[in-house]
Specification:
Layout: E1 22-24, E2 36-39, H1 45-77, H2 82-105, H3 113-117, E3 120-124, H4 132-147, H5 151-154, H6 165-170, E4 172-176
Antiparallel strand pairs: 1-2, 3-4
Helix pairs in contact: 1-2, 2-4
The protein binds zinc ion.
Length: 177
C-alpha cells in the first residue's frame, strides 16, 4: 500500500507513514492506504522523563520488597556468603527491571505504568506493537544511551521523530496514544 498523503510505499499493516508521519485510518469500510488523519505526535523529552521517574519509583519499591523477602529467606537458611547475596540481589534487580520494561512495552498496552500515566506508547516504525525480543533489545540499547553520558536520551529532544539512540537502534518510536 502507498501513503495517501505523500505517496511513500508502506508495509501492509502500517499504522503510520514512515515518511510523512500521518496516521492511517483503520476503520470498517475504509480501504487500507486510502485515508489518513493528522500527523502522529511523538512524545517529547519531558513527558518521557516524567514517565521514567514514575517507573523508577515503582521498580525501586518492587525491588526493595522482593529483595527483602528473598534476603530473609536466604539469611534464615544460613551459610550463604555475602558475595553470593550480592550476586543474587544484582540478578534479581536486573530481572525485575527487564521483565517490567520488556513485558509491559511488548504487551497489548504497549506501555509501562509510567508511560500509561502520561498517555504514551511504544511502537515500531510502522506504528505497531513491538515483540518481546525487540523490547529486550531496546532495553539493552538503553545501556549504550546511558554510558555515553546520557547523550542517547538527550537525543530525544533533538531528533526529528524524537527518538533516543536506543529507539534508533531498536527501530522504535514513542508516541502520544
Ligand atoms: Zn506519507
Amino acid at each position: 500500500m502507498y501513503c495517501p498523503s505523500c505517496g511513500a510505499e508502506q508495509a501492509e499493516n502500517s499504522k503510520f507513514c514512515r515518511n510523512c508521519g500521518v496516521r492511517f485510518v483503520q476503520a470498517e469500510g475504509v480501504q487500507p492506504g486510502t485515508a489518513y488523519t493528522s500527523a502522529v505526535e511523538y512524545a517529547g523529552f519531558w513527558r518521557r522523563f516524567g514517565a521514567a521517574i514514575i517507573d523508577g519509583i515503582i521498580i525501586n519499591v518492587a525491588s526493595f520488597i522482593i529483595g527483602l523477602i528473598i534476603g530473609l529467606i536466604i539469611t534464615s537458611a544460613g551459610g550463604v556468603s555475602d558475595a553470593t547475596i550480592n550476586v543474587v540481589s544484582y540478578l534479581i534487580g536486573f530481572l525485575i527491571y527487564w521483565l517490567y520494561y520488556a513485558l509491559m512495552e511488548s504487551s497489548s498496552k504497549q506501555a509501562t505504568p509510567g508511560k500509561m500515566a502520561l498517555g504514551i506508547i511504544v511502537t515500531d516504525n510502522d506504528g505497531n506493537r513491538i515483540s518481546l525480543g525487540r523490547a529486550t533489545g531496546r532495553l539493552f540499547a538503553k545501556y549504550i544511551s546511558t554510558i555515553i553520558l546520557f547523550i542517547g536520551f538527550i537525543m530525544i529532544a533533538f531528533t526529528p521523530k524524537k527518538q533516543g539512540l536506543h529507539d534508533m537502534m531498536a527501530s522504535t518510536l514513542v508516541v502520544l496514544k
